[in-house]
Amino acid sequence: MEPVDDLTRVRVGLEEGADGAVMAHALNLPGCAAVGGSPEAAVAAFERVLGEWFRFLAALGEPVPPRDAEIELSVDEWLATDARVAAGETTALFAEDLRALPQDEAERGVHRLGDLRARLLARIRRRPEALLDAETPGGMSARQVLEELARAQWWTLSRLGASAMAEVPEKTLARLDTAMVLVVDRLTTLPDEARAHRIELDGEEWTPRKVLRRLLWLEWTLGAAALSALIAVDGAAV
Length: 238
Description:
It contains six helices and six strands; from the N terminus they run αβββαβαααββα. It is α+β, with helices and mostly antiparallel strands. The strands form two sheets. Strands 3-2-1-4 form a four-stranded mixed β-sheet. Helix 3 (103-124) packs antiparallel against helix 5 (172-188) and helix 3 runs parallel beside helix 6 (208-234). The two termini are 33 Å apart. Residues 1-5 have low confidence and may be disordered.
């Protein structure tokens, strides 16, 4: 079990976009992030998301801080990028991302991705499939969000050299499954010499650790968006 001090200290990286918005990223809790119009607003939003992450991890039986523990947020890095952060873009490469991604961390990250996906699909499958295509006040249907998740997942994985899928399944859920298979295969079979590899593609720098962080963030945010779209058209919690 991790020492309580390790669980209660969350290291944060701030990404200030070209639009002035700020995204707070948990450097030692990959995937946990939140956006605000200022550094203070981003940190406040991050604290709320962090609570949701801890509840999610506790439900999986993973170690989390005691409920009465005081969480220490440490802003370790503050970067300026050209991303439109308020629109959900992020391009930051933190010093933490430069560390090699060892096998055990890669496998732990893949398991967490699988847990998030299982939670999403369990709720999606409890609803009639027709609801996936229903229009929502926000404009995107649940199916469109899920399609974006599958596309974004493969695109992010391609930053590690993954090639395009030879055959794209027609059904949305099958596309999600296929993309996840690619993620598991790529991240769990990284050769040692590639675990700290740094590459620039289309003006953005990537490492395996950054790819894993981005994949978890996509799964968390787009999964939640898909469920919100279902709630908007069904009027009930999923």
